[in-house]
Amino acid sequence: MKYVYLAPLIALSMHLLNAQESAVTAGQVVDKIKNELTCEWAEQTVDDFKSGDPSSNITGIATTFLANLDVLKRAKAKGLNMVITHEPTFYNHFDEKERYGDDPVLQAKLKFIEENDMVIWRFHDHWHRTTPDGIYEGIVNKMKWQGYRQEFNRFIVPEISLGDLASQLKEVFDARAIRVIGDPEMKLKNVALVLGAPGSMAQITVLRRDDVEVLIGGEAPEWETVEYVRDAISAGMNKAMVFLGHAISEEAGMEYCATWLKTFVKEVPVEFVPAEEPFWIPE
Ligand SMILES: [Zn+2]
Q: Which of 24, 77, 135, 191 could lock 253 by a disulfide, CB 3.0 to 4.6 Å apart?
């Protein structure tokens, strides 16, 4: 008799044990990340929780370039309620929601986040500061340019025209709206990356180097770096610039982040959910 009653009890306790083993909180995931980084954790950083309770158990992790509402919906549909985003959730670098008041777009997003218990954590500063920089690593891997690498962001590629380079990039990133400044027939070998939106001086400082002909970047104010490149060309210099767009220029870095996370977060599924390129261009 005893035997009959013990069996379900054993099964139940085994089940609870397994559930306990697989449980992980959002805060514990962040602790694991901090443990794996090669850089010190900065006191002042934008890398923190933008929504949700760090002590809540999570069902899965989505990594993305940017936690827009569409990404949140797709993550939720996949059962992933923790979203690790590279860029802000609320339209400014410090995620200050107050400035929008009762803005209907903000309210719609907050409503979805709340109703679905979405935990959002930003992973920007330290993903760049760890060695290797996770964003650059993901992009360089995607371009298959590791063999051309001279420095962390400088490459010598087999000679190619600017037009062909731009076409290659369009294909590699499956992009619609890459923008290029320079002569498509220009021959080049020396390329540098300055991804994202680090400010025009970060781009210009690299572009002015003698060993850089073409800069591949994310975005810039059009009256800053863009006009600097046009003036360089007018002054007779062999310079050009390719703007991938911010999303395209960094998204593969968050795909790589999912691969990296899977090596030490085993309790829940981890998946890359692309934010995708925001722009299209008319035919
Ligand atoms: Zn970045």
A: 135
